[in-house]
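Z., the sequence and structure:
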Amino acid sequence: MISTAEFRNGAMIEIDGEPMEIVEFQHVKPGKGGAFVRTKIRKLRSGNVIDKTFRAGEKLVEPDCEERSMQFLYRDDAANEWHFMDDQTFDQQFFAAEQVGDNADLLKESMVVKILFFKGEPLTVQLPNFVQLEVTDTDPGVKGDTASGGSKNATVETGAVVKVPLFLEIGTVIVIDTRTRAYVERVR
């Protein structure tokens, strides 16, 4: 059980058998009446964010979630499946594109990711915060383009398209922040 006093961003709760993650919360103590906690919570299965209010001191169930480290093996385009292998048991599992999420196009073969399971059902795939990928297609750089200038689209080895500075060329390995899908730096 988790009390509303123990709420923090990222904490997980279960309401009506549905696992949810607290996105933000605020303790409110009005001048009249009892204290309460206003929250924004994200349903882990669907990704929907809802507003919910709890009485101060209310206890909620913590979901039966397990996080496993798994290695990405390959993508089966014909079946639209993503295959992963458990690092501990070496069991292979496959997931549909919806289960992998929006950053599926940043997955590189043999990349280790964290997968959150709820009662044996996979919910989310969490990539490392930063990944190194090679630029495979972009407009050529022009002499005089600077780091502080504009940006252009670049396709990386996994097929994802990201914004990069004008001076980057094909074959450059770059670091991408998977949380924002933003270019961070080039690898030297």
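Residues 97-100 form the longest helix (4 residues). Residues 69 and 114 are 5 Å apart (CA to CA).

Let me know what you think.
H.
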